[in-house]
Amino acid sequence: MEANIKQVSAVLNPPAPHMVGDGFRVHNFFPKGYKLKMSPFFLLDYNSKIQFSARNEPRGVGVHPHRGFETVTIAYHGAVAHQDSAGNSGIIKPGDVQWMTAASGILHKEHHEEAFSKKGGPFQMVQLWVNLPAKDKMSKPKYQALCHGSIARHELENEAGVIEVIAGEYMGTKGSASTFTPIEVYNLRLNKNGKASFSFPSDYNTAFVVIEGEIKVNDTVLAKTDQLVHFKNEGEEIRVEAIQDSVILVLSGAPIHEPIAQYGPFLMNKPEEIQQAIADYNQGKFGYLEE
């Protein structure tokens, strides 16, 4: 059994934060913060818990384009209002997930939700960029709004806690989001001394983000709030125990073995596709969205 353990490659502290717009203070764990092998996940921006003061004019990020991938926003504290050029809009509250497939191209904007902005308070979010395979990069944009109450739940034995299966499948509980490639995304909510175990194929790129609390991985490795646990591409089994009440974002996925060309908000396979994306954006082919 021990030979099949997926060993930890590193426990990483959050890189220095930077602002995205004036509403998101994020630590970029990858690709800029650390050079991690995490395909199909291309980017992980982590807005660690901070306190925002009350303000009438909501902070956020104005209209900007995306093409060639999906953005997945997971809310832990605070609330974000979203709007895009495909006519989708909504509010992401704690526990909610917004899964936006930009694909062939979309404009969107994200701001602190008005009521949250006016009273201020703790704010904590994760945004992932999930790469799309070449055959799907120019598919039609779509939007999946996953409310906390509708996300599939797997109750762990011995009142250890619960696993919210956002995407993929855990012990027969199927995730709420549809994906283009095999991806596992869970919120693991463990009570103190609670235990959970996972099994992911050895070639899946895997990481845990400790959103809250402190955990022990594979009986030996400790990780605390705001740290990322990155795993080696060998072995399959992972064991987790909570030292205190903890929330862990679990990410694992089959790598997409295709070249990547990235420029700003565009994630394609070839440089000429980036040039085309810029040209299409400049020609208004991503639609229209008011600032």
Give an overview of the whole structure.
The protein has 291 residues and is mostly beta strands. It is 6% helix and 51% strand. The protein is built from two helices and 26 strands. The protein has helices spanning 114-119, 271-282, and strands at 8-12, 18-20, 24-30, 41-52, 60-66, 69-77, 80-84, 89-92, 97-101, 106-112, 121-131, 142-146, 152-155, 161-167, 169-170, 173-174, 183-190, 195-199, 205-212, 214-217, 221-224, 228-231, 237-242, 246-253, 261-263, 266-268. The strands form six sheets. Strands 1-22-19-24-17-14-13 form a seven-stranded antiparallel β-sheet, with no helix packed on it. Strands 2-3-4-11-6-9-12 form a seven-stranded antiparallel β-sheet. Strands 5-10-7-8 form a four-stranded antiparallel β-sheet. It is globular. The model has no long low-confidence stretch (mean pLDDT 97).
Q: What general outline do the C-alpha atoms trace?
A: globular
Low-pLDDT runs: none
Terminal residue distance: 56 Å
Order of helices and strands: EEEEEEEEEEHEEEEEEEEEEEEEEEEH
